[in-house]
Structures are given as structure tokens and as C-alpha cells.
Amino acid sequence: NAGVMQNPRHLVRRRGQEARLRCSPMKGHSHVYWYRQLPEEGLKFMVYLQKENIIDESGMPKERFSAEFPKEGPSILRIQQVVRGDSAAYFCASSPSPGGNQPQHFGDGTRLSIL
Amino acid sequence: AQSVAQPEDQVNVAEGNPLTVKCTYSVSGNPYLFWYVQYPNRGLQFLLKYITGDNLVKGSYGFEAEFNKSQTSFHLKKPSALVSDSALYFCAVRDKINFNKFYFGSGTKLNVKP
Questions:
Q1: CA–CA gap between residue A62 and residue A68 (Å, rounded)
Q2: Which of A51, A53, B14, B21 is least crowded, fewest Cβ atoms below 10 Å from its Cβ?
Q3: pLDDT tens by residue, A59-88
Q4: Which residues of B touch A (CB under 8 A)?
Q5: Are A41 and B107 within 8 A, CB to CB?
Q6: Tens of pLDDT along B41-60?
Q7: pLDDT > 60? residue A96
Q8: How far is B9 from chain A (nearest CA, A)?
Q9: What would the DSSP string read from start to end of B41-84?
């Protein structure tokens, strides 16, 4: 399967713990995007990364959230000291370029539950 | 600011009947518009896009969408609905300056009954 791969599919954490979400883009795609989806809502843009660079993090909360896309390996979305409000589905998407007529291809998401 | 609106939370239609899922947009200039479908516990799947050209765009699974500039709408349509079309549908507009940004509507749940 050459699609966008996200793991884990489900993640349970207690308040105050750290959550790490991983995303491997489609083969040949070097642009990665992270979105958050709250129940009954659409997707909200969080961050856009290229290899080793954060291009746009305007949708990312200023505290506790960080993202990286290293030269080797998957992109990581990291949430420190999780709180109940972080419970959501987190989706990763990738594209071969950021061009206007290219759709983004989505993974199946990680559903994060905070106890 | 760019945005899309999906005025209906839910659409119910009988199998075999035509379906329409509504989307209106607010964008300066010509928009880049997309429709995605989301099945339970899955990510979004691309259906179709409008960039330029013909106002009627054909996409996957027999879906099409009509771009109407005067009404600032991009409604999703299908002539004959299938039960398997039941899913969550999202309209999205792409930021024309920051191409990395999509603005998604709140989604419309389509229920197709046998």
C-alpha cells in the first residue's frame, strides 16, 4: 500500500503524558500537512512541513505542540502534557508539491483519547 | 478571509434518487475548490476539484460538481444515489497565496436509504 500511513490508529493517554503521532507520506511526496478534527467538525489546519523544515505552523497551538519531518523517517506530531481537550482525530496528508491544483492525500488518522 | 460553508448537517435520500450536497464559498478572485469524502474511521478521500475551465466537473464514483460563480456555490451531485455513498462529505477551498492551506467546511452527512 503506497498511501499515507499513520500510526498508531488509536492512542490513549492520561492527562500530563506525552503523545507522539507518526506519519509516513506517500512515496515521492515531500510535503506533509497535519490537521485536527474534533467530533462533528471539519478539519482544521495545524502545520505544513517539508523535509527538515517547518513551512507554516500558523494553525498549531503555541504551547505543548510541536512537529518535525526529519531527513530520514516519518513526520512526528508531538503533544506534551496532554489535556482532555486534546482528544481528537489527527490526520496527516501529503502531496508531491504545494501547487494549487494538487489534491492532498490523507492517511486514516490517529484517534487520540485522553483519560 | 477564505472559507466554505456547508449549510446542511445531514442529507437524506432514497437509493436511486439524485442527490445534492451543498457548498458555498467566500474567496476573493477565482477559487480552487475540492470535494472529499470520509468513511467511518478513515481519512479523507479526494473526489474532484475545480481549478478552471468547465463549470461542471466530473469526479470519482459517478460524482460531479457544478461551479457557479454568480451564486458562489460548488454543489456536489450524483444522478442516482447508492447506499454505499453514505458517508461524510467535505467541501474545501485552497488558499491561493499559501497553497499549503485548505479550509474545510464542517461536513455534511449523507444517508442513502434502500
A1: 15
A2: A53
A3: 999 999 999 999 999 999 999 999 999 999
A4: 32, 34, 36, 41-46, 49, 51, 90, 94, 96, 98-107
A5: yes
A6: 888 999 999 988 889 999 99
A7: yes
A8: 9
A9: TS-EEEEEEE-SS-SEEE-GGG-EEEEETTTTEEEEEESS--GG
Residues of chain A contacting residue B107, judged by C-beta atoms under 8 Å apart? 40-42
Cβ neighbours, 10 Å, residue B19: 20
Strand partners, A7: A22
Of B42, B99, B103, the CB nearest to A108: B42
**Which of the two residues, B75 and B26, has the higher pLDDT score?**
B75
Considering only alpha carbons, which residue of chain B is nearest residue A95? B100
Q: Looking at residue B65, what is its pLDDT?
A: 97
Tell me whether residues A43 and B102 touch, CB distance under 8 A.
yes
Cis peptide bond upstream of B114, omega within 30: no
Chain B: residue nearest A58 by CA? B101
Question: Is the Cα torsion angle B58, A102, B34, A43 positive or negative in sign?
Answer: positive
Spatial neighbors of A87 by CB under 8 A, at least 6 apart, are A112, A113, A114
Cα–Cα distance, B23 to B35 (Å, whole number): 9
Q: Are B108 and B21 in contact (CB under 8 A)?
A: yes
Q: Which residues contact A79 (CB under 8 A, 6 or more apart)?
A: A18, A19, A20, A21, A64, A65, A86, A112
User: Which residue is closest to B94 within chain A, CA to CA?
Assistant: A100
Spatial distance between the Cα atoms of A70 and B7, rounded to a whole number of angstroms? 40
